[in-house]
Amino acid sequence: MIIEVENVSFRYAHSPEPSLRGISMAVRKGEFVGIVGPSGSGKSTFCLTLNGIIPHSIKGEFRGNVYVDGLNTREHSVATLSTRVGLVLQNPDAQLFNMTVEDEVAFALENLGIEREEMERRIRWTLKLVGLWAKRHEFPPNLSGGEKQRLAIASVLVMKPKVLVLDEPTAQLDPLGRKEVLSLIALLNREEKITVILVEHNTEYLLEYADRIIVFDNGRILMEGKPEEVFENVEVLENIGVRIPARIKISYELKRMGLTDKIIFDRERIVEVLRWAYQRRKS
Ligand SMILES: Nc1ncnc2c1ncn2[C@@H]1O[C@H](COP(=O)(O)OP(=O)(O)OP(=O)(O)O)[C@@H](O)[C@H]1O
After folding, report:
1. Hey, what's the signal peptide range on this chain (predicted)?
2. β-strands 3-12, 71-72: how paired?
């Protein structure tokens, strides 16, 4: 297991209630895990435990253990853990502060004591991977939202982490930017075999790409499983405010109307049932 979380609880200093309440989970190498849950359920707090920001940089009461690639986060600095787990947050502007795209990516490497040549090789590899090589001399604030977020991803990728944790990386982007970033994440998982943990409200995307979905509610894991298994719990999820992928919602309604006996995931099959129901109504 590349990530192991054992009974983790966390209460922010000055907060009366814990934000995480006994989270246990593990992530396999190469896995793509999607995290969903209502606002305030602890998703962001959980992400911050994965590279040691909690407990090292944010004060509070931390219980349990998180192991990243075998390292207990309590015993290693955020700098060391960041070479294993790259963390990307919602707002790309808050993560970029250098004068050029290239400097932004180089900056992350500066304290790692890497040789000049290897540095250049890594920067080239990363910028090509995220599709920003041609824009390497540009001023980051001039990039589009999607490009900025791809640059934020590049600046953690350049450290060659085995795991990428992304906390709603598309929340502030327009539809095009969102598409660019989500395709990049899928590519990094499929082609580069990077383990991905993604907090994302776009459940359509998660249904397509995630191997597993974890649902957070009130600081706990409410359920987890394959996307098809989890999203089948339409009523429970809608009750807590998790969006159901459109085709599952349609199929769920077909089942309620007695037109199928179970939820169908296959688009073609849904269309077939709808066609059949339409024909039946006409005749
Ligand atoms: N710095 C902080 N200090 C005190 N309480 C906090 C802090 N950050 C978050 N919380 C509280 O912890 C709980 C979990 O918040 P968290 O941001 O982890 O949830 P979330 O599921 O990521 O929500 P969202 O989808 O809105 O980002 C909330 O009750 C929130 O108010």
Report:
1. none
2. unpaired
